[in-house]
């Protein structure tokens, strides 16, 4: 398939402390178009931000019939798909699976025939991954941070 018929989705999540304030950065590229998205949260984890970046990146794509190459430096996210961990979690009905709320959201967006995951080394030579990291860090350093309801609700269940 020609690269011009493919959307490139670059994602990264970041956290100051783990858990702590976190954010994600997204770069979407299609033909000559480019879109950047970022969002920050008051209290979350790095893995949640990595996964939420993919979810929100896929949600931002209007034409759901185009091949999407998803570039992530998160082994957690990429291996969950490539090593079929997600299939096992689905079969277990997400019993004792971290971030199950987000994985369920992911499944609503994910199309295995059109979404290809590619792992990239973080903080290395991938320009777009580095841009996503910059967006993610800037997002959690802003004064306007959202609440990661899925995470904070779960952590507050013990109080």
Overall description:
There is one protein chain. The protein is of the alpha/beta class and about 160 residues long. It has a single domain, classed as Ribonuclease H-like superfamily/Ribonuclease H (Nucleotidyltransferase, domain 5, 2-Layer Sandwich). Helix content is about 40%, strand content about 30%. The protein contains 6 helices and 5 strands; from the N terminus they run βββαβαααβαα. It has helices at about 45-60, 75-80, 85-90, 100-110, 125-140, 150-155, and strands at about 5-15, 20-30, 35-45, 65-70, 115-120. A 5-stranded mixed sheet has the order 3-2-1-4-5. Strand 1 and strand 2 (about 20-30) form a beta hairpin. The longest helix is centred in the N-terminal third of the chain and has 14 residues, at about 45-60. It is globular, with a radius of gyration of 15 Å. The termini are far apart.
Per CATH, what is the topology? Nucleotidyltransferase, domain 5
Characterize the largest beta sheet: strand count, sense, and whether it forms a barrel: 5 strands, mixed
Strand arrangement within the widest β-sheet reads 3-2-1-4-5
Binned, the helix content reads 25-40%
For the secondary structure, the number of strands is: 5
Poorly predicted runs of 5 or more residues: none
| CATH C-level name | Alpha Beta
In N-to-C order, the SSE pattern is EEEHEHHHEHH
CATH superfamily: Ribonuclease H-like superfamily/Ribonuclease H
Task: Note the total helix count.
Answer: 6
Shape: globular
Q: How large, in whole angstroms, is the Cα Rg?
A: 15 Å
Task: Give the N-to-C terminal Cα separation.
Answer: 52 Å
What class do helices, strands and sheet pairing give?
A: alpha/beta
- Second rung of CATH, namely the architecture: 2-Layer Sandwich
Number of domains: 1
């Amino acid at each position: 398939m020609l690269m011009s018929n493919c959307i490139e989705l670059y994602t990264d999540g970041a956290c100051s402390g783990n858990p702590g304030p976190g954010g994600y950065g997204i770069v979407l590229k299609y033909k000559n178009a480019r879109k950047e998205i970022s969002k920050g949260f008051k209290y979350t984890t790095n893995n949640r931000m990595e996964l939420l970046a993919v979810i929100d990146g896929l949600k931002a794509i209007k034409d759901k019939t185009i091949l999407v190459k998803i570039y992530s430096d998160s082994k957690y996210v990429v291996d969950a798909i490539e090593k079929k961990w997600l299939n096992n979690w689905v079969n277990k009905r997400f019993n004792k699976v971290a971030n199950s709320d987000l994985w369920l959201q992911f499944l609503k967006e994910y199309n295995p025939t059109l979404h290809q995951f590619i792992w990239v080394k973080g903080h290395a030579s991938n320009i777009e991954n580095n841009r996503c990291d910059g967006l993610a860090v800037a997002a959690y350093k802003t004064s306007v941070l959202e609440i990661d309801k899925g995470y904070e609700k779960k952590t507050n269940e013990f109080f």
